């Protein structure tokens, strides 16, 4: 299939902030502004849309890895509590409170990471 020749010239008036957003969101595309705008238009018309840039994808992976670490911390705390309960240890209330605070903090981190991931996925 022969590539279509570019024969129509069209001019656009863009604000400086929009031009900057286009450049930032297409930093992975090499070429001038015209090429970047064409790529965005083609992406918008494509059935196989992938709205994520490589940097956004890397950020999401980073967030997921951080969430995984938070879940590991949560699991470790729960295992420590279960171990002490199964051993019949008599632990002071302050120790249980400390463990509960650790679990609450870890759960808060997981919730925050989930919120950040959802927010980035809808950009």
Largest sheet: none
Overall body shape:
rod-shaped
Measured between the Cα atoms of the first and last residue, the distance is 35 Å
| Poorly predicted regions | none
**Count of alpha and pi helical runs:** 4
- Using only C-alpha atoms, the radius of gyration works out to 25 Å
Strand content: under 5%
Number of strands: 0
Q: Number of domains in the coordinates? A: 2
* Portion in helices: 55-70%
- Mean pLDDT across residues: 77
- SSE topology string: HHHH
Can you walk me through this structure?
The chain has 123 residues and is an all-alpha fold. It folds into two domains: 16-45, no CATH class; 54-121. 70% of the residues lie in helices and 0% in strands. It is built from four helices and no strands. Helix 3 (54-87) runs antiparallel to helix 4 (93-121).
Fill in the keyword field for this structure.
single chain; mainly alpha; 0% strand; rod-shaped
Quick take:
This protein has helices at residues 16-25, 33-45, 54-87, 93-121. By secondary structure, it is mainly α.
List the helices and strands and how they pair.
Blueprint (H helix, E strand, L loop, with lengths): L15 H10 L7 H13 L8 H34 L5 H29 L2
Helix pairs in contact: 3-4
């Amino acid at each position: 299939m022969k590539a279509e020749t570019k024969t129509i010239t069209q001019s656009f008036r863009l604000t400086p902030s929009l031009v900057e957003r286009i450049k930032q969101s297409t930093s992975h595309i090499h070429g001038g502004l015209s090429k970047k705008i064409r790529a965005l238009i083609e992406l918008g018309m494509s059935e196989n849309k992938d709205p994520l840039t490589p940097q956004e994808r890397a950020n999401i992976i980073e967030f997921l890895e951080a969430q995984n670490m938070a879940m590991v911390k949560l699991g470790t705390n729960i295992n420590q509590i279960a171990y002490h309960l199964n051993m019949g240890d008599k632990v002071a209330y302050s120790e249980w409170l400390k463990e509960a605070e650790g679990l609450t903090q870890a759960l808060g981190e997981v919730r925050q990471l989930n919120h950040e991931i959802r927010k980035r996925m809808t950009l």
